[in-house]
Amino acid sequence: MDIVVEHLTKRYGPQKAVDNISFRVKAGEVLGFLGPNGAGKTTTMKVLSCFVLPEEGDVKIGGYSIREHPEIIKKHIGYLPENNPLYQDMNIIDFLEFIAKVHEIPKHLIQERLLDMVMVCGLEGEKHKLIRELSKGYQQRVGLAQALIHDPDILILDEPTTGLDPNQIVEIRELIKRIGKEKTVILSSHILAEVEATCDRILIINNGRVVVDGTAEELRKQAQGNEILKLGVAGGDINDIFEKIMEIDTVETVDFLDFECQLLEVQSYPNTSSVKDIFDTCVANNYYITEMTPIETKLEDIFRELTTH
Amino acid sequence: MNQIIQIAKRELAGFFDSLMGYVLIIMFLGFSGFFTWIYGDDIFFIGEANLNIFFKVAYWSLFFFIPSLTMRSLTGELRGGTLELLLTKPISYWQLILGKFASTVILISMALAPSIIYYISLWSIGSVDHPAIILGYIGLLLMSMSYIALGIFCSSISDSPIIALLSTLFIGIFFHQIFETIASSSLGIPGSIFSALSMFTHFGSISRGIFDLQDFIFFFSMIIFGLYASKEILVSRNLKA
Fold this sequence. Notes:
A: four-stranded antiparallel beta sheet; elongated; B: mainly alpha
């Protein structure tokens, strides 16, 4: 099922939480929803899951509008809300059975689905415990199980890995990747590495607006621009080395990174590379290179650049 | 319909898991049995084969028990965030509210059911006014349903169970007693308006075995109004939240 979001606007009082957002998610795609806290991620997800109605705009899921057919859309969506609300006083099996029945899964299939979910989400050892007795990681798994139990076409996960330990984060990511092969997944996070590791496409929103829409690769390319090298050269006086490097035609600027260790930062002109010339210069002057690393623009930098003004 | 049943089943299981259900049933039967058969103006003292004493005791005890049952019905969902969980499943606002309503009505019926023994015992002692007793039970059930609807409404307005409890009792006491007191001391149109709004009047007439459409209209309008208002409040909460 495709998701089409058209000119979505949602206000809380005078403040616009989501401001005229439009995007599409194709069936089978895993979309990462990024943004600083308060950017409008959760609000957008609440709208997609038919919990909150927007003031303006519409969302069509599989051709159905959230305004006209929420009851049909809800059947095809599995939603894990931000703080993962669960009935604390129920045990896992009873809770999942309740959710299965609400979804009108035929009686003879319920048992099978329950066992499936317990296995997929790794709840085997805990299944008869009360939810309030579970650790946060296990509660998160129960949250995922309740979102998956009716085998939805679309999965909406609002910060699925908050509060988990690193091992659990890896497990949940693996799980999402596995699910993402068959289903459309929308995942929100403010951890960039997570989105990069699990998503096909990234959507960054800030102050309720979409600022970037593309793959991680595209994002990098867009922000990269000039070649920047971290260069360590020894075998001569650092000031001489500095001047020699500056003489290279393709080099735009050279900065000292570390005077003692003789580390420089070399930036080339757009669309040129100075790697070979630096090497030749060093050879010609009997210097030797101790280090030469391209400085890659990190997604973190792109994120910061895009969301801090 | 399935959704309403599932929600009601879950709620009902919750009442018994938290012991609330047992406590309510035991307290209700204990109170009503004590006053009907043992203490004060009991059945033997009056020497009449009717259950008026029981209905009087039930009239007051249910008034206090019901708010303690309904005070968590929506406040719990609002506080724990589980409202979001439910409403993003194929469950509508009406199904949610009707499920909550049904579960409490069933619990009250379970508390009332054993008291039928009183009726049977009475029947074995003397000649009983059957229609009066049957209508009395119907009256108790309708009154309970009205207060449950009111209780659910009060539990939708805030996420604090205590506020829900106190506001149900506060609004309820007007219908339960205050309107009656005002009506009895005023004349003419105001008198009849307050009398028409009083639970005391309607329950009194029905438990005396009088079948009057007005009473039924009163109960049903209170139920419908309570449930409809709760639904509207939940919807408007979601537009804001």
